């Protein structure tokens, strides 16, 4: 795996408290962390700072996470970026929809600590780098 400092994590989350909490945790592990609170800005952001992985909330104003995920996965240039759904929606239908649209993992925020989320990101990136 690359040195963590080279790894860019994009967090798409409209709750400032939550996004800052994850930013602090990822930066303490030497990840470069980019936060956006509006899914409509996703392509513009990844065009300029292509992340290694994206953590994507579902419930957001303007454009929900499912629409953002569709946008990412429909773009040939970005479809290989792993996306983890990081949300409070725990219904089976939401989980299935996230995977159907191309998410590599689905994390219910209330079930995982920020440390566990960082570990999940490391595990996914290790798997990505092995292939």
CATH C-level class is: Alpha Beta
Q: SS-based structural class? A: alpha/beta
Number of helices: 5
Low-confidence stretches: none
**How many structural domains are formed by the residues?**
1
Radius of gyration: 13 Å
Q: Tell me the overall shape.
A: globular
C-alpha termini separation: 11 Å
* Lateral arrangement of strands in the main beta sheet: 2-1-3-4-5
Total number of strands:
5
- Classified in CATH, the superfamily is Response regulator
Q: CATH architecture, please? A: 3-Layer(aba) Sandwich
CATH topology: Rossmann fold
The major sheet is characterized as: 5 strands, parallel
Mean pLDDT: 91
**What is the chain-wise order of helices and strands?**
EHEHEHEHEH
- Beta-strand level of the residues, as a percent range? 15-25%
Helix content: 40-55%
Folded structure, characterized:
By secondary structure, the protein is an alpha/beta fold. The protein has a single domain (4-130), classed as Response regulator (Rossmann fold, 3-Layer(aba) Sandwich). Helices cover 42% and strands 18% of the residues. It has five helices and five strands. It has helices at residues 16-28, 42-48, 65-73, 92-100, 114-130; strands at 8-12, 32-36, 53-56, 83-87, 105-108. A five-stranded parallel beta sheet has the order 2-1-3-4-5, sandwiched between helices. The longest helix is centred in the C-terminal third of the chain and has 17 residues, at 114-130. It starts with 7 loop residues before the first strand and ends with a helix. 27% of the residues are buried. The model has no long low-confidence stretch (mean pLDDT 91).
């Amino acid at each position: 795996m690359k040195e963590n400092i080279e790894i860019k994590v994009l967090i798409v989350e409209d709750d400032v408290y939550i996004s800052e909490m994850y930013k602090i945790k990822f930066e303490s592990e030497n990840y470069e962390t980019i936060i956006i609170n509006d899914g409509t800005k996703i392509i513009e952001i990844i065009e300029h700072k292509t992340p290694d992985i994206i953590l994507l909330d579902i419930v957001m104003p303007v454009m929900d996470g499912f629409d953002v995920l569709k946008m990412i996965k429909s773009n040939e240039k970005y479809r290989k970026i792993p996306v983890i759904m990081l949300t409070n929606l725990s219904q089976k239908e939401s989980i299935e929809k996230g995977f159907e649209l191309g998410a590599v993992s689905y994390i219910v925020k209330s079930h995982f600590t920020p440390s566990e989320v960082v570990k999940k990101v490391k595990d996914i990136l290790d798997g990505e780098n092995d292939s």
